[in-house]
Amino acid sequence: MDLTGRPCGKKAAFASQGYFAKPPNRRGRQVGYVVATNYEEIVVERVFNGNTPLPTALPPLVEAAEQTWRLNAEQRARTSLRVDSGGGSVDDVHWVLRRGSQVPTKDYSGTRAETLAESGVSWMTDPHDPDRQVGWVTVEPSLYGRPLQRIAVRCRKQNGQWGVRGLLSTLSASEVLSLTGPPPDRIQDPNVVVLAYVYFDDQRGGGIEIEIKEDKPGLQTAKRNKKRFEAQQRVTCLEALAHNVLIWARPWLAPHCPKVATLGLKRLVRDVFHMKGVRVFNEAARLVQIVLNQVDPLAKEVCAGLTALLAQEQVRITLGEI
Description:
This protein is of the alpha+beta class. It has 3 domains: 1-69 and 206-256, no CATH class; 71-196, no CATH class; 275-322. It has 10 helices and 12 strands. A 5-stranded antiparallel sheet has the order 5-9-8-7-6, with helices on both faces. Strands 1, 2, 3 and 4 form a 4-stranded antiparallel sheet that branches. The chain is globular and about 75 Å long.
């Protein structure tokens, strides 16, 4: 889960000064995303006031995601809510834990992370990054009403000093090992386990950011603004639908059009879904044929993919001069 700024006119509903890209003092709204990282779908997309921080947006985003997925208590216990440190405050973690979900996140407080790092952490160097060290926090957590693991991570800054942050996770060691790759029999090795927690947190970075960055040029999401709040929320719902259809289309077409599997959303829209073609309908207004422009570089492969996809619909896919 994360927020991204959506600049708009100052007369638009809910537009206010907040955190936006340059230039400074811009007005706009914040758009909250919930992305299912493993399969890249947007689960929830909601519009908020321009100065809304992640801790404020977190509860409505979580509740909307649970409603979309129709999660029961057992399913929530198998759901891992991954947010940046902005959603790692004590109140936020408490709220999520009371709902029964799993929490792997960064501690919001940098001061608390530094204090814990000075409490006798036994540091080990990350074998993949010599400028990073990790270690177990041995002080028992007293701020949370549920057992969780705490790991201290420090990275060398350019000035030579250490920057420290804390990781929080309710996932068990066996769950983290299964998600990061080490054999389950390594669970008795504390160094392997602590690195697994850190690598699992590393996997969080880039997931939702990539989906947001692909939507902006691919779907032109940053350029679609409505003055009324309700209209803007409807636009975001249509954007989420368009994003998901594109994500679904890649595996649909990939068996017969391998090039599609490697395309991002921008090139998928530009090179595939902007392909010239003609649709043919019968007297009952039913689609019976699609003719693709034969000179398009991807036309032959897309034709084979659509033929297999629409075979049961009895839609004929052909190539022709357009």
